[in-house]
Amino acid sequence: MIRLESLDSTRIKRDTPVPYHYQLSELLKQEIESGNWKVGEQIPVEEDLCEYFSLSRTTIRKSLDALVTLGLLRREQGCGTFVAEPKMIEGLVNRPIGFYDDMVERGFEVVTRVLELHRITPTLVVARELELDPDATVIEIRRVRYVQNLPVVIVNSYVPYELCPSLLEADLTHTGLYKYLRESAGYKTYRAKSFVEAVGANEAEAQLLSVKVGSPLLMIESTVYLEDGRPIDYYKSRHRGDRMRLLMESEKLEITPI
Question: Could you read off the pLDDT of 167-207 as tens digits, one per residue?
Fold first, then answer.
C-alpha cells in the first residue's frame, strides 16, 4: 500500500477559494501521472486520508470519485482502491487505418472474436451511407476486439459485397478488416466521416465487454472512403469508457477572429 508520508499535506491550501476536493484530486493525479504511484498499488483508505489531510470523508470521496471517473483509479469491492492502468488511446479522425492496425502500431496485442460474418440485405441507413443500389447486398461483420486479453470494443461493420466477395471467407481473428481489404483486394482507406457519442452499455454489450449494465461507452459511427470517393465500410463501434480514449488531430488549422 502507498504510504501517506509520501504526500505533502501542506499542498492543500486553506486560504484559497479552490475547493478542497479539487486540490486533493489534483495532488493525487500528479502522483499517478508522474509515476510516483505505480499501476496496481493500493492507495490509503478513506479514513486515513481524512485524518492525514484533515478533510471530511465527503471531500475525500469526491476527490477519489473524480479520479475513478478519469480512469486513474479503480475500485475493487471488498479490496480497496488501486492505481489503474493507463487508458489506451485510439486515433480517430485523420488516420482511417482501423482499430486493429492502430493498436498493433502502438505495441498492443490484439485478438478478435468474430460473432457474425455473413451476407445480408442492408437496412436503409446502411444502404444510404454506403451509397448502394436498391438490389445491392453487404457483408455484415460483428466483432469483439480484445487488447491485452481485455474486451474493449464491439464493432459492427458493413462492407459492400461486390467490392470484396472473398471477405466472407476471411479469418479476421488475428488481422484487421482494412489490412485484409488492402492485401487481398488492393483497397486503401483514405478518409473517414465519424460521429462520437456517449452511451450506456445495454445488457448484451455489458456481457460482451465484461462491464456493468449502464457503464459508459464511447460510440463511434463512421463511414470510411477509398481515395476515389467510394464508401467501403460503414460501422458502429462501442468502446469501454474506462479503458479507451480517442485521439482527434487537426491539420492546417486556420484561426479566425470570433
Answer: 999 999 888 899 899 999 999 888 888 899 999 999 999 99
Q: 200 — phi, psi (to 5°)?
A: -100, 145
Full-model pTM: 0.71
Domain ranges for the chain, please list them: 4-83, 88-247
Q: Within 145-241, where are the H helices?
A: 177-185, 203-209
Q: Residue 161 and residue 140: Cα distance in Å, rounded?
A: 9
Output the CATH code of domain 4-83. 1.10.10.10
Q: Please count the other Cβ atoms lying within 10 Å of the Cβ belonging to residue 40.
A: 10
Report the side by side order of strands in the sheet with 231-240. Answer: 110-120, 138-147, 150-160, 231-240, 216-226, 189-200
Q: Is 255 helix (H, G, I), strand (E, B) or coil?
A: coil
Cα 64 to chain centroid distance, Å, stands at 22
Q: Which residue has the cell 496485442?
A: 109
d(Cα 156, Cα 115) in Å, to the nearest integer? 10
CA dist., res. 38 & res. 85, Å (int): 9
Round to whole Å and give the CA distance between 143 and 93. 21
Q: Which CATH class is domain 88-247?
A: alpha beta
